[in-house]
Amino acid sequence: MSRLDALVSLSQVKRAIVDAILDALTDVPGIRSITFVGSFVDREDLSGISDIDTVVVFDRLTPARFAEAVAQVRALSGEAVGCPGRQLLVNATLGPLKYDGLDQVVVHLMLYDLASHRQHVIKSPFTCLDWERSQVGWGVLLADVYPVGCLEPRDFLAARRGLTNYVSDLESGTLSFRRFEPQADRMVEVEDRVVLDRRHQGEYAYHIVRNLVANTLKLLSGQNRLWDEPSFLVVWREQLPEMVEWISFYECLRDLKLARADDFPADTLARTRIFLGAFSAALDDVINRAFKLRFVRHGRTLLNDGTFLGRGRDPALVEPQSIARLDQQWDSVHSSPMRRAVETAKALAPQSSIHVDERLAEIDYGHAEGHNLASLREHFPQVVWAWDRGEDSPFPGGEGNEDVLRRARSYLESFALAAGSGLAVTHNVVLRVIVAHLLGLDLRQAYRIPIAHLEALDICRIGGRWLPNWGATVKAQLIDGFVGWQDRE
Q1: For a tag site, which of 102, 178, 294, 340 has the least CB within 10 Å?
Q2: Which of 113, 147, 181 lies at the terminal end of a domain, its last residue?
Q3: d(CA 100, CA 95)
Q4: Structure confidence by residue, pLDDT tens digits, 402-448
Q5: Which of left, alpha, beta for 55 (phi over 0: left; psi -120 to 50: alpha)?
Q6: For 36-50, 127-141, 180-194, 419-433, which range has the lowest pLDDT when averaged over its residues?
């Protein structure tokens, strides 16, 4: 679905609101993307119409641009957005602080620039993945500005709106949120907190339970979707049987929230803390039982000189003795058949038997072996032309990325019933296509993903799916390369 198709699919009332806000922001300079998110676009009915979540990404966000964007939207009336008789307010914090008076229309205007949006994706993958479902808006899609890729188990421990963040909020009795403050010629993000009354404590408890369960279902299914309530409960029972006992608590919170009730049970926060403990224990159990596989790119050789080094040449490592052995014990160790990979595996795990697996071999560069990109363009221009057209053209007489991915997936499927841990030493292109596949990135552009010699990338198998287990720093490094982040700064 295109941006235009998404707009057309809205109801007439919602389309009028979107048009009014887009018109208001038309003359504000430097905007790259405007996307309407949250319940306003997730639901076909008019729910969410009083809280219009709007994400705006600038190339660079200055105090003047921030103030102008807020002023332009604030100048709209309730009548201008199709809601006569209501007061229009602008919430310019970065959420999830809410204003929800019955006679109000609130535009939650979340303003970022490229750098702060990137930081938000890294720190708040749950929220940003939800946002990527929406194509309602104008300009560049959020997933093309800076993609989340996918969720991973560590996100539940370290990310915003994860376990640590929720526990901190509950212990302090407050809701943490962020806002921007001007500092010289830029806007600086600061964290703030607000004390919640009893009603909003209950609604926050609902938010915690619903989001943790929904994000777990996204992790297990690989689907970035919004479940309707009956489906949500069915999938919860199927996928998280160890947490089924909490459904009644969730339904109580849900019903009170929908009724806009003020009388949430007095023990709501205490029970939510117990829920977080049970959720954390269940997550730990799943992670501990998962099969874990560490991929490592081989060490450097003299032929890693900018020419295509695949299978046609088989150099030794430059300094195998400098590779530090890994302390961890592995249930199995695998290697590409190439000498540089086998030597690396022996250095990393000298006490282990090395199982050579052809599926871990580097891409077959065919007749391009030994050429560099300039030479390939000269001698095999049709291949480069095909790449320029966006095709996954194989190297002349060799393989393309899809061929390498097919081998890699076959290798991964061989661990379907495995337990414990494994080590696999392989090559640059193999790792690039695996990373692109796991993150849902365009395989044709996998060459952009940076993989250093001896770089280790951990993945794990949970619920029949392979998931990254890299952490935010490594994941950001990989995505930075893919989107060409250095060129955007």
Answers
A1: 102
A2: 147
A3: 13
A4: 999 999 999 999 999 999 999 999 999 999 999 999 999 999 999 99
A5: beta
A6: 36-50
- Cβ–Cβ < 8 Å for 36, 91: no
CATH at 367: 3.40.50.1240
d(CA 270, CA 194): 19
Domain count, the chain: 2
Predicted confidence at residue 311, as pLDDT, reads 95
Block residue for tokens 């679905």: 1
Distances (CA, A) of 355 to 314, 328, 333: 18, 17, 6
The one-letter amino acid at 353: S
Find the DSSP H helices in 38-96.
Answer: 39-42, 63-74
The answer to the question of residue 194 being in a domain is: no
- Structural domain including 310 reads 290-488
Q: pLDDT: is 137 or 47 the higher one?
A: 137
Average pLDDT over residues 84-90: 86
Pick the closest to residue 360 from 341, 380, 374 (CA basis).
Answer: 341
How many angstroms separate the Cα of 13 from the Cα of each of 44, 271, 441, 443? 11, 40, 35, 39
Work out the average pLDDT over 279-303.
96
What would the pLDDT profile of 215-262 be if each residue is shown by its tens digit?
A: 999 999 999 999 999 999 999 999 999 999 999 999 999 999 999 888
Q: Coil, strand, or helix at residue 326?
A: coil
Beta bridge partners of 355: 334
Angle, vertex CA 52, rays to CA 233 and CA 61, nearest 5: 120
Q: Find out whether 190 and 178 touch, Cβ atoms under 8 Å.
A: yes
In this structure, the chain runs to a length of: 489
Edge-first strand order for the sheet with 104-113 is 87-91, 104-113, 51-58, 31-37, 137-139
Structure tokens at 486: 């250095």
256 occurs within a structural domain = no
398-417 exposure pattern, b = at least 16 Cβ within 10 A, e = fewer:
bbbbebbbebbeebbeebee
Q: Of 106, 125, 147, which residue is a domain's last? A: 147
Domain membership flag for residue 196: no
